[in-house]
Automatic annotation (TrEMBL):
Signal peptide: 1-18
GO biological process: cell adhesion mediated by integrin; cell-matrix adhesion; heterophilic cell-cell adhesion via plasma membrane cell adhesion molecules; integrin-mediated signaling pathway
Record flagged with keyword Lipid metabolism: no
Residue ranges of domain Integrin alpha third immunoglobulin-like in the record: 762-941
Protein name: Uncharacterized protein
A single MF term (Gene Ontology): integrin binding
Annotated source species: Photinus pyralis
Membrane spanning residue stretches: 983-1005
Integrin alpha second immunoglobulin-like domain sequence ranges: 624-755
Keywords: Cell adhesion, Glycoprotein, Integrin, Membrane, Receptor, Repeat, Signal, Transmembrane, Transmembrane helix
Family the entry assigns: Belongs to the integrin alpha chain family.
Cellular component terms (Gene Ontology): external side of plasma membrane; integrin complex
Length: 1047
């Protein structure tokens, strides 16, 4: 066999939360294949040259004396840290032999073939301690009067020291008695010792010198536990025990093999009691051990575990203290058991907890495995179990093997290794740390077999106890991978604990403090005396209120039993801060791991559960009493610019709030005001101290500290022009808070709820394009078969509030009854173009022909271009227009004008309804364009007596029971025929005129208008006036001459 040693940095592929088991440097011992089951069982021993004892139960022996034995199994001694190969123990320097004694019951003939030598190995933790190995399928080839029998009793061997590989070992054969190979029970003969399989499991109690051997095949595989009690080894005797009379050293011992017939817990065959064994001290005041044994097929395959003591006599029941039944069928509950000390001193003077493996327990897939942890409350009272699952990998069989590995992190509590040998094909080992409350529910380290060697299989089927093989005061472990023939020795590094200190030179800070001095110190403790010096990175993180709040990093060299200290001056900013929170300085620290090329036994690591930082909190002097807890009494008062009890939407464009905050208690630090406002309003004016958060709430920092009996005021102005007319209330929520304990929180909030009302109206206007049409030429002929014109209506919201939608109804004359009382289609109405907010509005009509289109059809027929004489449409009306009013908007000659509107008796109208839910702001219109086509030939018939047609349409809108209407007229002008007038009409006219003239002359004559004296009198009066005016002129000229002469 070749020992393959690995001292190289390996790639760690599956390690999670690595702790102090160093996976970078491991010792790997390999035989190259899994045929021999090398690594099926393990024992780690320490000494000047530490070693691992390895069982290979499917191996042939390398000694010539064993050549005749087929695959007996083998046991190997492999020294750690040397280049030598592993050595096989001889155990017995002869092959299959026959031994006869004075008592025929104990005669036997070896049949060591396929005996599984090395299936179990146990012993002390030191190289000079006893060593034990079992071969559970060893058979006694016995012949008697009934014939030849192969009695698979099983055999175990013991040796006082593991150093001697060539010496013969002592045999332990408690099931050899020929008189107990069978047992008659209820008139049925059963195998008793015949298939006992002694040594299937083994547990060595070092301090009490007891060996516990599982024999699950006893009495029809009900099973039993064999106790081997050794005497003091200082009185070893020389006895002659073999046929060759050869002397060898023997151990004095006694056996106790309880009879399963008398064990009340074993009611049936095939319980496999003794499949796993362990022990522990479960009652503090007693020094006696309780033994633990698993029976994975008991209780209808739910499994069972017993905590018991051995009876004085074999044919007596066990003294059972506790009995546990598995919870899942077929989980193999009890497939492994372990008593684990609750503290580092538990094995000597403390008490034990219990672990029970159920490796085929199923959670989500299959055979993930589970371990039950029973916490000992004291005096043997165990809590309800807590389950541990590993990684819950399919087929992993977590809990196949468990081992007490000692206190690997030096926290005074025992730790455990639990394996899942089929996890991810290669297998895995989990490290669980003990603690004050028992085993941790989470593993501290996961070691995946293929991370060490890709071909490793069955990693963790066997795990040794923890032993310190390199004298660094921390235990190491050996892990077997029997399916690939590998054994891995994984060593642990020492654990140190940092002892940091962080101190302030000031007990508290004033609000105006500008600087503070902080002192920091660092030292460490170690359970290993060999860790003399370490390097550590120290980082100082300062409060955000420090002027320079960047981290300070430095490397410190620490020596054992020495403390390093230094101080730092921190400058504090000025500004608005929360002084109820202390000024914080944090020191974090991390061990610097040196770069290594081989395993370093004295290079420490830190426990991942230890703190990696320390924090210093320096309070500010708040002026809030000795408890430094401020109790302010804040109150709110909110007013608006006007007393707004209700609001008409659109009446105001803004609303302003004045918010006053007053403190009548102790100082209020970091007083904050919160203003929540509706979604359809926008802020116009707010203090620069306010910020809008993601919830549309303004957070306003009032001041660093609001002193007692002091008020603060904020102003908020909101834009309310865009309120939705469907909104019923306008709600603002104002709250105030501070860092202290508010005395009266009831007055810290104000809810402002303003009811909203809507007030608006509709104004309608319109125009016709063109406003008049002449549909004949000068020769009184039709211009065209049809003429077109357009009417546009404007329905406007006159406010002040927005309008949530517009509904309008339009009436248009389309048919006129002729002299024969037949309705004729005169006007065709196209589908209208109606727009609100640049959005098209859909309109509908109840007119039976629908809207007119350019393809010549109204709905399904071309009525406009045909003479409609169908009876079904003669008197059809689309609308009852009797209530409509049509004012005289034009001063048209009544004798020449025909009125065509929806109030006319001989007119059939078309009703069109247009509805929209679009919100219309104040003065925003609905624009409705209607295009018409009129039949000229019908119009000429209608105008046979009158040549003017006044076409009038109507728009109607109803809002809150108020109806608004408007009419658009369009004048259609044609030509009437001249009437035949007689000449006598003209002669009579001239005659009448002459008679009137004679009458006027006669009247003037009677008034003497034509008499001459009167005429002369009038002429004389006119001459006299002329003479007076000339005299006045002459007198004026004479006066002017006299004045000139005197001068």
């Amino acid at each position: 066999m070749v020992s393959v040693r690995a001292y190289a940095i390996l790639i760690i592929l599956g390690v999670c939360d690595s702790f102090n088991f160093d996976l970078n440097f491991v010792d790997l011992i390999s035989v190259g294949s899994g045929e021999k089951y090398f690594g099926y069982s393990l024992l780690l021993q320490k000494g000047d040259v530490s070693r691992v004892i390895v069982g290979a139960p499917n191996s042939n022996s390398s000694y010539a004396v064993h050549n005749s034995i087929g695959v007996p199994g083998a046991l190997y001694k492999c020294d750690i840290g040397t280049s030598s190969s592993c050595q096989q123990y001889v155990i017995e320097s002869k092959g299959n032999t026959e031994v006869k004694s004075g008592d025929n019951r104990y005669n036997f003939k070896d049949l060591k073939d396929n005996g599984l030598m090395g299936a179990a190995v146990e012993g002390g933790d030191n190289v000079d301690d006893p060593l034990y190995v079992c071969s559970p399928r060893w058979k006694n080839d016995r012949s008697d009067r009934y014939g030849q029998h192969y009695l698979a009793n099983g055999i175990c061997y013991g040796m006082t020291t593991s150093s001697n590989v060539t010496a013969d070992w002592e045999r332990y054969m408690p099931l050899l008695n020929a008189g107990k190979q069978g047992y008659t029970l209820a008139k049925v003969v059963k195998y008793y010792y015949a298939m006992g399989q002694l040594g299937f499991a083994m547990h060595y109690v070092t301090r009490q010198r007891r060996l516990l051997l599982g024999a699950p095949g006893v009495l029809g595989w009900r099973g039993s536990i064999v106790q081997v009690a050794f005497q003091d080894t200082s009185n070893l005797q020389i006895q002659r025990r073999d046929t060759h009379q050869r002397h060898k050293r023997q151990l004095l011992y006694s056996f106790n093999v309880p009879n399963p017939v008398y064990i009340s817990s074993l009611e049936e065959d095939n319980f496999y009691f003794g499949y796993s064994v362990s022990s522990g001290r479960f009652v503090r005041k007693y020094s006696d051990l309780w033994f633990i044994a698993g029976s994975p097929r008991a209780a209808d395959l739910y499994g069972m575990v017993l905590l018991f003591e051995f009876p004085q006599y074999e044919d007596s029941d066990l003294i059972v203290h506790k009995k546990f039944i598995g919870e899942q069928f077929g989980s193999y509950f009890g497939g492994s058991v372990l008593g684990i000390a609750t503290s580092d001193l538990g094995a000597q003077m403390g008490i034990f907890d219990l672990l029970v493996g159920a490796p085929t327990y199923t959670t989500d897939t299959w055979d993930e495995g589970c371990v039950y942890f029973y916490k000992n409350k004291g005096e043997g009272n165990l809590d309800s179990p807590r389950k541990i699952y590993g990684s819950k990998k399919p087929g992993a069989r977590f809990g196949t093997a468990m081992s007490a590995i000692g206190d690997v992190n030096k926290d005074s509590f025992e730790d455990v290794a639990i394996s899942a040998p089929y996890e991810e094909e290669s297998g895995a080992v989990y490290i669980y740390l003990g603690g004050e409350h028992g085993l941790s529910k989470d593993y501290s380290q996961r070691i995946l077999g293929k991370s060490i060697k890709s071909s490793v299989r069955g990693f963790g089927f066997a795990i040794s106890r923890g032993v310190d093989t390199d004298n660094n005061f921390h235990n190491d472990i050996a892990v077997g991978a029997y399916k690939s023939g590998d054994v891995v020795i994984i060593r642990s590094r020492p654990v140190i604990k940092f002892l940091p200190q962080l101190l302030s030179m000031a007990k508290e800070l004033m609000l105006n403090t500008s600087e503070v001095t902080v002192k920091y110190c660092m030292s460490y403790s170690s359970s290993s005396k060999n860790v003399k010096k370490v390097d550590v990175n120290v980082t100082l993180s300062k409060d955000t209120r420090a002027k320079d709040n960047s981290d300070s990093v430095r490397t410190i060299a620490l020596e054992i039993n020495q403390t390093f200290c230094d101080a730092v001056l921190i400058m504090i900013q000025e500004g608005i801060f929360d002084y109820t929170k202390p000024f914080t300085v944090e020191m974090s620290y991390a061990l610097i791991d040196p770069e290594l090329s081989e395993f370093c036994a004295n290079c420490p690591v830190t426990n991942p559960s230890d703190n990696t930082f320390i924090q210093l909190n320096i309070p500010f002097a708040s002026g809030c009493g000795s408890d430094n807890i401020c109790r302010p009494s804040l109150s709110l008062n909110v007013t608006t610019q006007t007393n707004v009890s209700s609001l008409i939407i659109g009446q105001l464009s803004t609303i302003k709030f004045h918010v006053q905050i007053r403190n009548d208690g102790e100082p209020a630090y970091i007083s904050q005001l919160f203003m929540a406002f509706p979604e359809d309003v926008e802020i116009l004016l707010v203090s620069s101290k306010c910020e809008l958060n993601d919830s549309r709430i303004y957070e306003c920092l009032l001041s660093n500290v609001l002193q007692p009996n002091v008020s603060s005021e904020l102003v908020f102005e909101f834009d309310i022009k865009r309120l939705n007319p469907k909104t019923e209330n306008l709600t603002f929520n104002v709250t105030v808070q501070s860092r202290g304990e508010e005395v009266n929180p009831d007055d810290n909030a104000v809810l402002i709820n303003i009811p909203l009302r809507v007030q608006n109206g509709v104004e309608i206007s319109g125009i016709s394009f063109p406003d008049s049409i002449i549909f004949v030429n000068e020769n009184k002929e039709m211009i065209a078969q049809t003429v077109e014109f357009t009417q546009e209506y404007y329905l406007k919201n006159v406010g002040p509030s927005p309008m949530s939608g517009m509904n309008a109804t339009f009436y248009f004359p389309v048919e006129i009854q002729n002299e024969l009382f037949t309705n004729q289609i005169v006007f065709g109405v196209y589908e209208p173009d109606v727009i609100i907010n640049n959005q098209a509005v859909t309109c509908k009509t109840d007119y039976h022909l629908g809207f007119y289109s350019d393809d010549g059809s109204n709905g399904e027929s071309s009525e406009l271009d045909q003479d409609n004489s169908r009876e079904e449409n003669r008197f059809r009306r689309s609308v009852d227009a009797s209530q409509l009013s049509f004012p005289d908007v034009f001063d048209l000659p009544a004798n020449r004008t025909i009125l065509v509107n929806c109030k006319s008796d001989n007119v059939t109208c078309m009703k069109i309804t247009c509805s929209s839910s679009e919100i219309l702001a104040k003065n925003q219109p609905m624009v409705a364009k209607f295009k018409f086509r009129a039949r000229v030939d019908v119009l000429i018939q209608i105008t046979s007596e009158r040549d003017i047609i006044l076409f009038s349409s109507t728009a109607e809108s109803i809002l809150e029971s108020k109806t608004t209407t408007y009419h658009i007229p369009t004048i259609l002008i044609g030509s009437a025929k001249e009437p035949d007038i007689s000449y006598w009409f003209y002669i009579g006219g001239v005659f009448v005129a002459l008679v009137i003239l004679c009458i006027i002359v006669l009247i003037l004559y009677k008034l003497n208008f034509f008499n001459r004296p009167v005429r002369e009198k009038l002429q004389n009066e006119a001459d006299e006036d002329t003479e007076c005016k000339e005299l006045e002129v002459d007198s004026t000229m004479a006066e002017e001459e006299n004045c000139m002469y005197n001068t």
